[in-house]
Write a structure and sequence with these properties.
The protein has 595 residues and is mostly helical. It has 24 helices and 6 strands.
């Protein structure tokens, strides 16, 4: 089922117009329309439900709760259409229909439309929360140094059988069970059934000998060209990937993951290899488990941020992109030039990137909010708009340079040409279709779409994430030239700085985009950006035939069908969460009254 560029473009363009028409019930090209119905919150099913629930809560506790009549001291929200949304691209999918831990199998090609903004609010969407939880509850340890210590310091023999025994013991005690001490409290397994450990290696012979229940099989998870790259980098080493319970990171933070796994892995090793717990050399061994060969998801933040390792603010952008697994799905492998589709990878990777860096991090944690800046982020993964613009830029580049994806020479002038074409196309769409402009109300929303599309097309066609992100920033002067303003003050700072900083490697200005993160000075508090950078990094890597963008260990660690969140199809997962069909991990039903 190979998709060629013009077919993909026409599909996304037609879907975009249908989506906008669905919002308002009329042709989006009409200049004067009944977009403002003055129906208040009663036009919204979710807000009507919320109001009824709030009345009951107020009566029960005697303290006022949500009351839409207090909005603007009496003017209810809903003085315009409270629009609904359609998740982008689901009708063009044909794979990934198997059951997941969070929901029953999905029929590929099934559309998700009619979602309200409240359905896609981070607080209301369990799939969004689980996406972040699955990242921060992951702890990755190399086992090679630990095994060498066992052999050299304790004289023990390490075999595939002993490795499998250790993994079985670790899966016993990582969530629920005691392993060495008598008369010890244990956890109800139902509370922590999402907690487990697996391992992977680049050595096929060793992988075949390990108990397959504990193996992330790189050969099975990735197409051959990607598997060969990852195995080459991993080599004969063995890496352990452990997921601590979701409920644990929700009561603490991501920094707990390393400590939790370090403790449980140490005990499992001592037990599996009959190592005396009191020996002096044991402390050296425990150091290798807890500190000697650890791959952190994210670095610890400064004290003013008050978060430890594995926090969203410390995860590098390239690690976010490698968590995404879209680059190995059939839809991304059979795409734009009869081969691969990096635009698909970009828009899938930037979606959780935006949700976590904007909604979970910048708004909920940094700004301290509850609405999650949802409307700002929803526009990038709904209603086909970003796809339309991104595929347009890819087709333009293919026609202009007579080449396939990842083959446009990575020159600055080529980036400018692609970005200018995409920007013109975007502006034409907003100018000609008032319904589209109404859907993306606010100049900063429209700017972000234009910037993301320019970056997507440039990254996809050059395979260069720096040029892709330069195209994003180049949209600042292009948009100002057309509209005379951007709509939100934050864009002026970040994008005009980064026009220069993108190609600077001075420590206070720039490092490779893959290694920058949400705590990077230019990115500290500006919405609607970092998710785009993440997508461009992922798609550019896919365009140049790379199996990963930054770290093959991260890429392999998230190629795991036992994860609660399916990182292959994040937009689909968020849509299922909006339908209230996504079952998160970490619920306490096993130990609370029926409800």
């Amino acid at each position: 089922m190979v998709k060629y560029p013009k077919e993909l473009f026409l599909q996304s363009k037609n879907s975009k117009m249908n989506s906008i028409e669905l919002k308002y019930g009329q042709d989006p090209a009409i200049n004067k329309g009944d977009f403002h119905v003055f129906d208040g919150v009663m036009q919204s099913k979710r807000k009507s439900e919320a109001w009824e629930a709030a009345k009951r809560i107020t009566a029960e506790r005697g303290i006022p709760n949500y009351n839409p009549d207090l909005h603007l001291k009496g003017a209810q929200m809903g003085q315009k259409v409270l629009q609904t949304y359609r998740i982008t691209g689901l009708d063009r999918e044909w794979a990934g229909g198997e059951d997941t831990p969070a929901h029953k199998g999905w029929k590929p090609g099934t559309d998700i439309a009619g979602l309200e903004m409240d359905d896609l609010n981070y607080e209301n969407n369990p799939a969004m929360q689980q996406c972040y939880d699955d990242m921060r509850r992951t702890a990755i340890n190399g086992l090679t140094i630990a095994h060498e210590t066992i052999e050299r310091r304790f004289g023990k023999e390490v075999t595939p059988e002993s490795i499998s025994l250790y993994m079985e013991m670790l899966n016993h005690n990582i969530g629920a069970g005691a392993i060495m001490m008598e008369h010890t409290a244990e956890t109800n397994p139902e509370l922590v059934k999402d907690s487990y450990a697996k391992c992977f290696t680049g050595n096929d012979e060793l992988a075949d000998a390990i108990d397959q229940r504990f193996l992330i099989d790189i050969n099975k998870m990735f197409p051959k060209y990607q598997a060969d790259q990852i195995k080459s980098e991993v080599g004969d080493r063995i890496f352990q990937v452990a997921r601590i319970p979701t409920m644990a990171v929700r009561t603490s933070d991501g920094g707990l993951s390393r400590a939790w796994v370090g403790q449980q892995a140490s005990l499992a090793f001592l037990c599996a290899y009959d190592i005396p717990a009191g020996d002096a050399v044991t402390s050296d061994f425990v150091f290798t488990i807890k500190h000697g060969d650890v791959v952190f998801m994210g670095t610890q933040l400064p004290y003013r941020r008050a978060q430890r390792n594995n926090s969203a603010g410390g995860i590098p952008l390239g690690y976010y992109s490698d968590c995404n697994q879209t680059s190995r799905v059939p839809e991304a492998l059979e795409g734009l030039d009869g081969g691969i589709d990096p635009v698909k990878v970009i828009v899938e990777a930037l979606t959780p990137g935006c949700v976590i860096t904007d909604q979970a991090w910048l708004h909920n944690y940094m700004a301290g909010g509850s609405s999650g800046w949802s409307n700002y982020i929803i526009s990038v993964y709904t209603d086909e708009v970003l796809e339309d613009y991104g595929y347009h830029g890819a087709i333009y580049a293919m026609d202009k340079w007579k080449c396939g994806v990842g083959e446009v020479p990575n020159k600055y002038e080529n980036m400018m040409a692609i970005a200018e074409e995409v920007s013109r196309w975007c502006q034409k769409g907003y100018d000609e279709y008032p319904g589209l402009c109404e859907a993306h109300f606010g100049g900063s929303q429209r700017y972000s779409i234009q910037a993301a599309a320019s970056g997507a097309a440039t990254g996809a066609m050059t395979g260069d994430p720096d040029l892709g992100n330069a195209a994003w920033h180049y949209n600042t002067p292009l948009t100002k030239e057309h509209y005379l303003r951007l709509g939100f003050y934050g864009h002026d700072l970040q994008d005009q700085q980064n026009m220069g900083h993108t190609f600077s490697y001075r420590s206070d200005q720039g490092i490779p985009y893959e290694l920058k993160g949400p705590n990077y000075p230019d990115f500290a508090m500006n919405v609607g950006h970092m998710g785009g950078y993440i997508g461009i990094i992922a798609g550019a890597a896919h365009a140049r035939g790379a199996a990963y963008s930054t770290n093959p260990i991260i890429k392999a660690s998230f190629a795991d069908p036992n994860l609660q969140f399916d990182f292959r199809y994040p937009r689909r997962e968020f849509g299922i969460g909006g339908l209230r069909q996504f079952m998160p991990a970490g619920e306490r039903d096993a130990v609370i009254p029926p409800h």
